[in-house]
Amino acid sequence: MKRLRQGLSKTRSNLSGLFGGGAKIDDVLYEELETALLVSDAGVETTQWLLDSLRTRVRQQRLTEASQVRDALRALLVELLKPLEQPVDIDRATPLVVMIAGVNGAGKTTSIGKLAHHLQREGKSILLAAGDTFRAAAREQLAEWGARNNVQVIAQEGGDPAAVAFDAVSAGRARGVGVVMVDTAGRLPTQTHLMDELKKIRRVIAKSMPDAPHESLLVLDGNTGQNMLAQVRAFDEAVGLTGLIVTKLDGTAKGGALAALAHTRRDRPIPVYFIGVGEGLDDLQAFSAEEFASALVD
């Protein structure tokens, strides 16, 4: 919680200062709150929804102090973010096949390392498929990391990423591994041929093991703010996302984007399994709506 609070301090400084001792509940407060939410990248639609809901709550509960308004805003944020809070079921298949995608530079390879560390602590053995077959540095990074952390890595130089994924899942089944993680090359949603490649990797994994991949995760850079929404939409259309990992929340001023994500996808929420709040191996934390809302406004 402390790391999360530190990480979101830039976002929080915009919001929490509005509810100081002598603040009055008037149009000025709502206007300043609107500005703070927009600056935090909550987006116009989500900001409007939060303000309308907050005004209603203030009226219904006859709130008279700024601190009560802050409590009401926190409660609204918790309600909004709660559908994103779901644990990943790591025991529903053996091996559990996890496919991981993301745009270049989102922190995908680092997140895979942290996620593998987390799963090992839960007692799972891990096999890693280095599906980024074009970038030698990515393969080397994973191989080196695997050697250091007792994780088997399957890689091919310049091969077909779908073939690497197929081999890894087959090997995972044969060796009785707990979790097979399939890394994929970073790609932009606008690169149609690379999005088609991602669909192919998913299809081929399913041929290697029925019902796989059990989890299709997207790694998002917390600093991209509203841009997250377009990424989620594009990758979900391509591979049917089951969960998200939001990285680099340490030091971002755009923490409100998660509220926008929750609001715009309220008909089909995609859970945020983990958030990254630092460089350390233990800085990948399970997402908690209560903790996140509190770190935003308290």
Query: How many separate helices?
Result: 12
The number of domains: 2
The CATH H-level homologous superfamily of the largest domain: P-loop containing nucleotide triphosphate hydrolases
In round numbers, the mean pLDDT is: 92
Kindly estimate the percentage of residues that lie in beta strands according to DSSP: 5-15%
**Which structural class matches the secondary elements?**
alpha/beta
Strand order of the largest sheet: 3-2-4-1-5-6-7-8
Could you state the order of secondary-structure elements as H and E?
A: HHHHHEHEHEHEHEHEHEEH
In percent, how helical is the residue content?
40-55%
Under the CATH scheme, the architecture of the largest domain is 3-Layer(aba) Sandwich
Distance between the termini: 12 Å
Low-confidence stretches: none
Give the CATH topology of the largest domain.
Answer: Rossmann fold
Structural shape: elongated
* Assembly state: single chain
Sheet with the most strands, sense and barrel status: 8 strands, mixed
Computed CA radius of gyration, to the nearest angstrom = 21 Å
Number of strands: 8
